[in-house]
Amino acid sequence: MKRRDFLAGGAAVLGILTQPAFAQSVCGAADRFQPVKNVKFSDWVNRFQVRAKRAGIKRETLVAGFKGGGYLPDVVKRDRSQFQNRRTLEDYISINTTEKRLLVGRRAMAKHQNALNSIAQKYGVDPFVIAAIWGVETRYGERRGDVPVISAAATLAFDGRRAEFYEKQLIAALKILQRGDVQPSKLTGSWAGAMGHTQFIPTSFLSFAVDHTGDGRRNIWGNDPSDALASTAAYLKRNGWKSGLSWGGEAGVTRTQGKLVQPQSSGPRFVTTHNFNVLRRYNASVSYAITVGVLSDRLRGQGPLRGAFPPDEYGFSRQDRMALQNGLARRGYAIGDVDGVFGPKTKCAIQAFQSKRGLAVTGEPSQKLLRRLR
Predict the structure, then answer these.
(1) Which of 36, 97, 166, 329 is most buried, judging by how many CB atoms fall within 10 Å of its CB?
(2) Which of 201, 192, 194, 198 is nearest to 212 (CA)?
(3) What is the pLDDT of residue 124?
(4) Which tens digits make up the pLDDT trace of 259-268?
(5) Which residues, at least 6 apart from 236, have a Cβ–Cβ distance to it below 8 Å?
(6) Looking at the predicted structure, is the pLDDT value of residue 91 above 90?
(7) What distance in Å separates the CA atoms of residue 30 and residue 162, rounded to the nearest whole number?
(8) Which domains does the chain have, with CATH numbers?
C-alpha cells in the first residue's frame, strides 16, 4: 500500500494536539499514549511474533522492539474519532500560511539551504515544494510525534479495524529496527505510525527512504532533517515529478495551463498540472496538495490568494474568526495560533469563557459571542 492510500483513510495525524491547562476541566485531559495492561493484546503479540519470525524478524529485534511497550488505548480512541472534524481547504491554507508559520518556514529553509539545494539538484524537485511538505506535515520538524511506533502499530493491528494493513506496518517497523536505521527508543511518530520530519509510514520508508548524509542510516527522526527531506524528494521523483514544472496556481493569476479545480464551493479556483497529481501520490487529498502548492508559493515570496472563500457555517469570514480568537487571547485564554481556524484549543477557550461568564457552555462560536469579544 502506498502512502497516499494510507493517508486517504484519514489515518495520519500531523503533530500532537494538546489542550491548554486552564481548560482541562472543561475539555478533558490530553491523550497521553501510555501503555496499559491488556491480556488479550499480550496474547495477540505472542501469536504475532511467530508470524514476524516467518517474515524474517530476528528474536533480538522482537525483544528490543516490544520492550517497554504495550497496548495504547488512546491510539484506538484517536483512530475511532479521526473522522469527526473535517477541515476545509480554507482551514488548511489558513493554518499553514500565517505570518508566524511563514517566518518559521523561511528560517528553516535558510538554516538548511545547502541540504535543500543539493537535494533539489539531485532529484530535480522544487526545494520550496519539499519545504512546504515539511511545513504541512510537522511544522518544519516541530511536531514529529513521540508515540512509540511499534506499540501504536501493534495496538491498531490488534484492534482490528485495519488489521492487515497495520500488521504490515508493524513488520516494516521491525525491519527498520533490524536494519539499524534507528534505535528502538527513537522509533516514534504520530499515533497512527507516520514517522519523522515528513511523516513516512514504515512501508513507504522501506521503499523510498534514502541516506542523504552518507552516515549509513536513513535517519528521518533526528534534528537534522536532511535524510527526511531527501527521502521526500526521492518519493516524488519516483512517482513521476517533472523538473521545472510548477504544481499549478490560482486561476486568473497563474499563466500555467492545466486542469481547473475548485475544491470549495464559491472559493478560489486553481489550475493544476501533472506535478499536482504527483503531490496527490504523497497524500491523496486535493486540499492537501493545493495547500502544499500554495505554501510553496508563499515561501517563495508570492502573496496570498486573491479569491475569497465563502462564509463558514456560523456566517463568519476568516477575519471574523481571527477577531474572535484575538478577543479570547486578549482575555488570557490560550487559543494557539491566531489563524482563523476553530480548532480544539479555540473551542476549549470558548467553553472556558462561557463557563466563567455563566453562559450556556457549548464551545460553539456565534455572532453574539463575537460581539462580546470585540
Answers:
(1) 166
(2) 198
(3) 98
(4) 999 998 889 9
(5) 123, 125, 129, 278, 279, 281, 282
(6) yes
(7) 25
(8) 3-84+145-234 (1.10.8.350), 89-141+239-300 (1.10.530.10), 318-373 (no CATH)
- Are the beta carbons of 194 and 145 closer than 8 angstroms? yes
- Residue burial 314-330, b: 16+ Cβ < 10 Å; e: rest: eebebebbbbbbebbbe
Cell numbers that stand for 18 in this block: 494538546
In this prediction the pTM is: 0.91
- Give the E-state strand segments of 118-269 in sequence order: 147-148, 188-189, 248-250, 259-261
Instruction: Name the amino acid, one letter, at 119.
Output: I
Q: If you count DSSP H runs as helices and E runs as strands, how many of each does the chain have, helices first? A: 18, 5
Range scoring the smallest mean pLDDT among 84-88, 171-175, 227-231, 253-257: 84-88
Tell me the three cell numbers of residue 304.
496570498
For residue 167, the tally of other CB atoms under 10 A from its CB is 19
Contact in structure between 193 and 173 (CB atoms under 8 Å)? yes
| H or E element that contains 221 | none
Residue 207: CB atoms within 10 Å = 16
- Residues 30-77: tens digit of each pLDDT: 778 999 999 999 999 999 999 999 999 999 999 999 999 999 999 999
Length of the chain as a residue count: 374
> Phi/psi at 148 (nearest 5 deg)?
-60, 120
Mean pLDDT of the residues in the chain: 92
